[in-house]
Amino acid sequence: xxxxxxxxxxxxxxxxDGSPGEIESPAELDHHLRTGxxxxxxxxxxxLDRDWPEALTTADVTDSLFxxxxxxxxxxxxxxxxxxxxxxxxFPDLPYPTQPSRLYQPADLVAGFAEGGFAxxxxxxxxxxxxxxxxxxxxIREALAQRLHDHGIDNALSDTVNTWTAAGGGPIVxxxxxxxxxxGSVGYRAAAAIGRGLARAGCLIVTGGGPGxxxxxxxxxYFAEEDPQELAAAITALATVPRFSDHDPYTKLALEVRARRxxxxxxxxxxxxxxxxxxxxxxxxxxxxxxxxxxxxxxFSNAIRExxxxxxxxxxxxxxxxxxxxxxxxxxxxxxxxYATDGASGPFVFLNRRYWTTTLPxxxxxxxxxxxxxxxxxxxxxxxxxxxxxxxxxVVSHPRTS
Length: 402
Known about the structure:
Layout: E1 22-23, H1 26-33, E2 42-44, E3 65-67, H2 74-82, E4 86-88, H3 106-109, H4 113-116, H5 122-132, H6 140-166, E5 172-176, H7 186-200, E6 204-207, H8 213-222, H9 228-238, H10 247-260, E7 277-278, E8 295-296, H11 302-312, E9 317-319, H12 324-339, E10 348-351, H13 353-359, H14 362-370, E11 382-385, H15 388-397
Parallel strand pairs: 1-2, 2-3, 3-4, 5-6, 5-9, 6-7, 7-8, 9-10, 10-11
Helix pairs in contact: 7-8, 7-15, 11-12, 12-14
């Protein structure tokens, strides 16, 4: 079992701008304690057992919520409750934080790789724990811990998106496609070109966080500020280990390619050009982590993860070729657009015309559905193209709605 977890509070969360009502870092806690009160505030995932702030002993904690925080002792927990706080403590003996206060970053997921290879990473250790505890059907204690973890990811992702929107960020665009697309293939290069083009146009990319098309799209965003030749060189290097089943060399090469980019990470909303977001799941934890997204919202629940990706990507969806998982996303997204359950929809762009009209004739099924939407004919949202540049242009030129 993994003996340590990534500290949930080493730095303020990505895209941090002081989430109202939430305390997610020691610096925020110190700021509020100087006023003598944290009444009504929520403290998330803080390591208070390591460095207990004495000011908490006398501060007003009325109606405060401590969720997933490590506390020095049971007596401290009881005292907080007696003084009016609600405490949902961190669960002991888990390889993951009960309430992460920020999104994961690539370094969090591959922590331990230098010492133990792919099998020794935080990502793999959590996956092994997930498998050992019933996968998608865990016992009640584990199920509750997983839901608390995923709630923390929900909250961190919401903070991220709200800050992006408040800063005037562009559309959030999903890029979907097969996890088995090998590095260096035509499809992989096309997805990378789309990711780069959308990031340069001011869009925030979101993918499913896996290998194949998903890795390529985040890779394109990661190299958005570089010359196109740099992205091409990165893909050529990655193509020497084309398939994710070679776990250790696959991961090692991704880390090497990340390190090749000279430009430092931008932080904050600038992360749109540092790879954007990815939303993976430990249901598919046998796959190596996609290390080219800046912020990683990794969930235990695949159902929540799928809905989250499609709910976020209202600025448009690009579908590269894929199989069952990609088809599921097409029609789940179509349902959202048909009923407008998450507001107005961006375009549905299908890359590889022949694939989507002949191999998997999705277009012929989707058009009659969209033409009968209770919100009017939506068939104009469907686009087919073989050109990555045209795919970017379709998304960017689509009228934006609030």
